[in-house]
Design brief:
The chain is of the alpha/beta class and about 350 residues long. About 45% of the residues lie in helices and about 15% in strands. The strands form 2 sheets. A 6-stranded parallel β-sheet has the order 2-1-3-4-5-11, sandwiched between helices. The protein has a 6-stranded mixed β-sheet with strand order 7-6-8-9-10-12, with helices on both faces. Helix 12 links the parallel strand 8 and strand 9. The chain is elongated.
């Protein structure tokens, strides 16, 4: 017959072992202030020696924190788990939350029927806050977030919510301008653009950057994409039918550029000799493995994820991240626009 396992250590046991009061142990374990460093060290040593693990339900009653954050992505799982962009952003978020002993809860929006489910979960008191990205225009998520009253940080400049919505984004417009200027510096004159989905602000900003440099561009040089490789293939075929003498393409992201590159090779167009090609994102698994490797605009996607989590956690410590001012990183660190940089490889 097996011996009974040792009982789980209690706060009282830790207090007795450390020679302090139960209230002191509770304050130390739950991150409260007002405990001398010498006493805190005794408590932490006793916690370690006894193997004490706080009861999460009891801790939540004391701290009103769940140590969990919802990451809400307004895309189906087929997109999330095949696009390296999401993997890099989730990696950055996960690293930051782990460093603060907080859990990541992933919520995906597959279709209209998921909004009610996501809304119930966010309003149900399961998480301390939310990180939301890949939001589309006319998306219900911003309104759902507001109704839940959860502290929230958005990934990407939100179209809804006004200037007071905290977010992290890259300089999409400036990066696009740099890409197109680079193509012009190579002497290219018929520069096409394959857009991202224009119900997302990142795609709109990249299109605006293209137009900043080429305000008189022939509308035939524009083709709609959806940030996917298949979308890039379809758009490239349309462009070659309309403008067979094009000599450069700025693609809204690297997956789009990879799809365009496949079509150019199928049609016997040499890259970059006949057609120069620039992408956006610098997704290394894509940009370095195409043939030839992609010239692209780099944004630090993993660091963007870390910053999103960091801003949310900072807001939670201060009592809430939602509706903080967001007029630029110098005036209000609750929103951050990260710089971009052109990475030159063989495709341009």
């Amino acid at each position: 017959m097996s011996e009974p396992s040792n009982p789980r250590p209690t706060l009282e046991a830790v207090a007795a072992h450390a020679g302090v009061s139960r209230a002191t142990v509770s304050r130390v374990v739950n991150g409260g202030a007002g405990v001398r460093s010498s006493l805190a060290e005794k408590v932490l040593r006793a916690v370690d020696e006894l193997g004490y693990v706080p009861n999460q339900a009891a801790r939540t009653l004391v701290t009103r924190r769940h140590d969990a954050v919802a990451v809400v992505i307004a895309e189906p799982e087929t997109r999330v788990f095949t696009d390296p962009f999401f993997a890099q952003q989730l990696r950055g978020i996960s690293k930051e939350l782990t460093a603060h002993d907080s859990q990541l809860v992933l919520l995906l929006v597959e279709g209209p029927g998921d909004y009610a489910r996501v809304g119930r979960y966010l309003a149900g008191g399961h998480v301390d806050g939310a990180l939301v990205f890949s939001v589309h225009l006319d998306d219900e998520l911003p309104d759902i977030i507001r109704r839940s009253a959860l502290p929230t940080v958005f990934g990407g400049r939100p179209d809804q919510g006004g200037a007071r919505t905290p977010y992290v984004d890259c300089d999409n417009r400036g990066g696009a301008r740099e890409a197109v200027r680079h193509l012009r510096s190579l002497g290219r004159e018929r520069i096409a653009h394959i857009t991202g989905p224009l119900d997302q602000t990142s795609a709109v900003d990249r299109l605006d950057g293209y137009r900043d440099v080429l305000p008189e561009a022939d509308p035939a040089l524009l083709a709609g994409g959806d940030f996917t490789s298949a979308g890039g293939e379809q758009a490239m075929r349309q462009l070659l039918e309309r403008v067979p003498d094009l000599d450069a393409v700025f693609a809204a992201n690297d997956l789009t550029a990879a799809g365009a590159l496949r079509v150019l090779r199928e049609r016997g167009r040499r890259v970059p000799e006949e057609v120069a090609l620039v992408g956006f994102d610098d997704l290394v698994p894509v940009a370095e493995q195409t043939n030839p490797p992609l010239t692209t605009v780099r944004q630090d996607i993993e660091e963007m994820g870390r910053l999103m989590a960091r801003l949310l956690l900072r807001g939670l410590e201060k009592g809430g991240a939602q509706d903080a001012p967001a007029e630029g990183p110098a005036a209000a660190p609750s929103s951050v626009i990260m710089p971009t940089a052109l990475v030159r490889r063989a495709s341009a």
